[in-house]
Write a structure and sequence with these properties.
The chain is of the alpha/beta class. The protein is 33% helix and 32% strand. Strands 1-2-3-4-5-6 form a six-stranded mixed beta sheet, with helices on both faces. The protein starts with a helix and ends with a strand.
Length: 130
């Protein structure tokens, strides 16, 4: 299910931004570390898609999803290329709280935080970190 959401997000992002991103595993740094980015087009954009909600079904914090969304920010800032960095979240609460948690922090690179509404298929910029 989440893989299908990621494909939908990527297709809509590509269409609305006139790019041709794909899912790609890339080397980061010189020591062999690699990460699979959900959005990648050389010279244009690099990004991640997070489909996790802020809270789990029982109403408690979804710490696993929150940690994965935060880790995606790390990977995006470790990338040394000139590509625009975007992190797209399909859960609005996750997008807002992730942005609010990290705004004002000294990230090395700017990262756009976007919410993608799965129903309307529209992107909303929540803010730019870094």
């Amino acid at each position: 299910m989440n893989h299908q959401k990621e494909k939908l997000v990527r297709a809509c992002y590509n269409k609305s931004n006139h790019v041709s991103t794909k899912n790609e595993k890339l080397s980061v740094g010189d020591s062999g570390a690699s990460h699979e980015f959900d959005l990648w087009q050389k010279g244009k954009v690099i990004g991640g898609v997070s489909t996790s909600p802020w809270l789990n079904k029982s109403g408690s914090n979804n710490t696993g999803g929150q940690d994965r969304a935060a880790a995606e920010l790390l990977w995006l800032t470790l990338w040394s290329g000139k590509e625009k960095r975007v992190h797209i979240l399909t859960n609005e609460e996750m997008a807002e709280k992730l942005y609010n948690r990290f705004k004002g922090t000294p990230l090395r690179k700017k990262v756009e935080i976007l919410h993608f509404n799965l129903n309307t298929k529209k992107f909303v910029l929540k803010g730019i970190l870094g």
